[in-house]
Design a protein that fits this description.
Two copies of one chain form a homodimer.
Chain A (H helix, E strand, L loop, with lengths): L3 H9 L8 E4 H4 L3 E2 L3 E2 L9 E2 L3 E4 L13 E9 L13 E5 L11 E4 L9 E4 L9 E2 L10 E3 L7 H9 L4 E5 L3 E7 L3 E2 L10 E2 L1 H12 L3 E8 L3 H11 L5 E5 L10 H8 L3 E4 L2 E2 L3 E7 L4 E6 L3 H19 L9 E6 L3 E2 L5 E11 L2 E6 L8 H6 L2 E5 L5 E2 L4 E6 L4
Parallel strand pairs in A: 6-7, 13-16, 13-17, 14-15, 17-21, 19-24, 22-25
Antiparallel strand pairs in A: 1-12, 2-12, 3-11, 4-10, 5-7, 5-8, 6-9, 18-20, 20-21, 22-28, 23-27, 24-25, 24-26, 26-28
Chain lengths: 405, 405
């Protein structure tokens, strides 16, 4: 059997971030920036009022006081978005709004609350120092500075700065389009009519949601019956729009599995046993003219989900351009005993919490690969190494956090 | 001035989760479940094969060994999704696939790898105990069990279980539709042509992205000029689709602000000074026939963003039905000194990191309310209480984490 590491290296080999795409700023949210964005002008781009008030020459107000206000003639009125029509000369004032350019000749702004708010003449009761209440050109960002480097995950705060340096669009690594295809004659669309022997296709909706959670776009197809010609036609159809294909089911050792036979004809897919539990039967390769990568995950719902987390999610995160492609791992103290199969790395579903300042983890209910009750309560996967057959209570284990990016 | 707490209580008063809506499972991802979902049948719903192999009576195989295999007649073949046409009788075997119902009369499944895989007759080289390799009805989830309780944030693992108990749709609190409206004659669409005195409307795209990040839907409108009739018409238009309206700009003390005059006519909006920095001028109230809540945030980009984080985001999170509506707060050691205005709670932009096992935080560049460079580098807001005018290096401060939900 192949080790988890070897399989992970194999599926990641050759995977690179998707080619950059220009998108609007709001569309770029959550994506990884594919360019260094520099400032084509400083920020602020011009000296401007930092408050509503009057642009003045500070020296004119040296004696201003409550008892003896200094009176200045108001020669202009500049809302934000406009420029003064006049330069300021000593002894005068120009009414000005926050963000408006400081008029030529002014060296400071007197806040409104130190004045009587006059429109033709203003009485100032307290002076300012030169430079007060002025935002100076370049005091936030310098001309030519890299304001947001390539590789940054774009969020609201980056978007604020990108907009301020004049960008309406930026180049990002786009979201991969992931086709999620579930296969199995026993599968019924969730919510549909069941009959003895049939079960709901939980894999399709689960993996589609996991794809979205990883940051990619999910296109769910199926469930398909275990039928070679339908599968072949569906795959050929879907290849057009897929950056990645993920199938679930149809790969066990039973007599009715069709995935292996179809994919052997269509591409370079290799079926492997990986030394892990759950998730031993893995398939991976490429399909079609663009060598679209494909994963064939096992059909047991827990196996499918764990395989997605361990192998598919890192591939999607790399396509998205993320530097960190793996879930964070912490060390935690195991509370209940956990048996583990010899020679396989176990990914047991667990509930991670903090107790008395340290991480502790408990196995989350039944560990069978069909047991969705335990999976739904889990927020972590407890990783038990291949050579360990039992972890005892109180021992430390590595824990992969499913609730953290 | 009103305290931050008092204003927060005022804006949260009367805010409840939006009325539940039925959505598909994939649509429910990220939403808060509005119903207790119970299992209408146990899981598994029927005894079934846990592996590919042969359904047998365990007692038939007591002497099976490599040297002397036990031979059984194969009387049926059951793929997943089908039921056996025959009951099993002692001395016989039924070929069976993982997940297929255990035939009547069988008590266990012999895995394929302990057999020769025969189709008419099978040679078994190692026996099983009764119950081996069978998933028993109800061993994962009991009939009537609450599998996912109301209030749960739905993710892929919950979706797996919801599908398995037969749900195609679930009732969730839907995403609020938030209209984001920026106001200011100095504003130009990001990427558009600038001229002296004009700046890009960073608030519109930033707040829209922040709305999305909080889990809601953002509809961006504007930038609008500081003009009462345009603003009035736009608000009346947008009210139809809005669960919440957030404006930025147009609320300073300048002579050209129109928001106050328009909103005074249209609703119950109250304009308040809140004892915080940045973000002192706040407006909040309701508009229109449905009493749609509205926030009027200041126009300075840092003030707008901080106000969003402190006041608007908790309101959106409550509308979404989340129990935890606030960002997580940690205590961190301040590295550089941080002056703070008397009588106001400061929300300084900071960079939080872990050094030698403890949280440390550094102010992120310029703290002016127009300074987007610092904001873009920040991952946290350092909260300095009203009565503190300087935090010294080495002192502990409360830090609101902007990169955590």
């Amino acid at each position: 059997m192949r080790s988890v590491e070897d399989h992970l290296q194999a599926v990641l080999a050759g995977v690179t971030p998707l080619s950059p795409l220009d998108v609007t700023l709001v569309e770029s949210r959550g994506c990884v920036l594919a360019e260094d964005v520099t400032a084509p002008w400083p920020l602020p781009a011009f000296d401007q009022a930092a408050t509503d008030g009057y642009a003045v020459v500070a020296d004119d107000l040296l004696t201003a006081s409550d008892g003896k206000p200094t009176r200045l003639a108001v020669i202009d009125d500049v809302p934000a978005g406009y420029r003064a029509s006049h330069d300021l000369t000593p002894g005068k004032a120009i009414r000005i709004q926050t963000g408006a350019p400081l008029p030529e000749g002014a060296d400071s702004v007197v806040p409104l609350d130190r004045t009587d708010g006059g429109m033709r003449e203003v009485a100032v009761t307290r002076g300012v120092r030169a430079g007060d209440h002025v935002r100076h050109r370049g005091d936030d960002v310098e001309l030519g500075e890299v304001v947001v480097p390539a590789g940054t995950v774009v969020g609201p705060r980056e978007i604020a700065l990108l907009a301020a340096v004049g960008r309406g669009r930026v180049s990002v690594h786009p979201q991969p389009r992931v086709v999620v295809l579930s296969i199995g004659s026993e599968l019924v669309e969730p919510g549909g009519q069941l009959a003895p022997g049939l079960i709901a296709d939980s894999n399709g909706v689960t993996i589609a949601a996991a794809v979205q959670e990883s940051g990619a776009l999910a296109y769910r197809v199926g469930p398909l019956r275990d039928d070679a010609s339908t599968l072949l036609a569906t795959l050929e159809d879907q290849l057009v729009r897929a950056d990645l294909i993920v199938t679930t089911g149809g790969v066990s050792a039973g007599a009715y599995d069709t995935v292996k036979s179809v994919l052997s004809r269509l591409g370079t897919v290799e079926f492997t046993k990986v030394a892990m539990q759950p998730g031993t039967p893995q398939g991976h390769g490429t399909l079609g003219p663009d060598s679209t990568p494909i994963f064939t995950l096992p059909g047991n719902p827990v196996s499918a989900y764990v395989s997605f987390e361990v192998f598919v999610r890192p591939v999607i995160r790399r396509m998205l351009g993320h530097e960190r492609i793996y879930r964070p791992v912490v060390r935690a103290v195991l509370v209940d005993p956990l048996p583990s199969p010899a020679g396989r790395r176990q990914f047991a579903r667990g509930v991670l919490s903090v107790e008395e300042g340290r991480y502790v983890v408990r196995p989350a209910g039944g560990q069978g690969s069909h047991m969705l009750g335990g999976l739904s309560r889990a927020n972590a996967l407890v990783v038990v190494p291949e050579d360990v057959t039992e972890v005892k209570p109180g021992e430390a284990v590595a824990v992969l956090r499913l609730d953290e990016v």
